[in-house]
């Protein structure tokens, strides 16, 4: 089965023909609108006056001025090859086979030899399934391609597969395989070099210049099946196949080939609509999506606590009502910055404090990140006071920007809490015991020793006491 590409259903095209030096057929260069923010100020693979370039042209382009920006040219070479790939042709068995697996159809020929399958597969794209004579119960997909018969061990677990991809039908599996084989046979060198002349620069270059924050965020790529023709947003080449054609970033939606994903910069600009939740969302993703320095939960809760709660006895130690904390959490999820936190809505300040702690505890990556956990622990364990603070300062500087800013803001707040210790009975040591497990967690889930618990508390205590020189 081949993909059908139509103008109404797919991306906007600007098409024109040119004579390719490497083949006699005419090729179409396709252009689709860029995302809402331009890809950058360079269009790639521009050729001569006609504006085209033959496949494989690796010359770099001259940069455009801002007013000269043109959308990228989407390269059609691999798309054309997919359209040319052999069609799957099922070779049916003329008689019924006893004990045929129910998930196979007439393409199942029972226990025939490899030589017999070669005789039956006479044309390109022909395929059948046979059961192994030496290993009954195991099955082989025999496929004719490139004037030879290829044999693949075939599996079924509710879907058919010979590798990582899972297919609903054998025909779909064979069709996808023929596309991959054909493109590899025709364009292996082209594929190996297609990342050399990328169109990708920084997807949100224009908008990022308007932002006050420049937090670095790695893309979160996951295998994705695109329902129609799709082009890689790094190299501008077609993403071939019928399923799992490439990867898509769950943060910003960037779509790329698997090999291109390794070259994309750490510049994920998450779309706010993709961040479904406030609680349990990655810290960097959240602040980038909302274009804030810190999570709004942290800002709003701290402001309200400092407005009316610094003298509250046992602040952060005394638990608030779990029912009301749950209600406030849901309010943040629904209303965001419009949540009302005043005395009329939440008379008990411990509800606000409890919600802040719940938010911090639920971060998928804690404020003091996993990979720096032992760096902070070791720094806190240094006996020389000056050397200890210097080591903690160096560890703080290694935090990702969003984590650094959140930790700095919290430590300054907790330092102000200790200024009211005479009223709230919360010293830096007490706050360290409360926030140690909240702000830093071990990279694994194994039970934590008392020594590590004490080290966590000491780390946070030192951060609170010395926040003015550590940040």
Automatic annotation (TrEMBL):
SMART domains in UniProt: C1, RhoGAP, SH2
Topology term for the membrane: Peripheral membrane protein
Domain SH2 as annotated: residue spans: 107-174
Listed Pfam families: C1_1, RhoGAP, SH2
Domain Rho-GAP: 281-471
GO BP, sorted A to Z: signal transduction
Annotated Phorbol-ester/DAG-type domain residues: 218-268
GO cellular component: membrane
InterPro entries: C1-like_sf, DAG/PE-bd, PKC_DAG/PE, Rho-type_GAP, Rho_GTPase_activation_prot, RhoGAP_dom, SH2, SH2_dom_sf
Cellular location(s): Membrane
Molecular function per GO: GTPase activator activity; zinc ion binding
Record key words, sorted: GTPase activation, Membrane, Metal-binding, SH2 domain, Zinc, Zinc-finger
Protein's recorded name: Beta-chimaerin
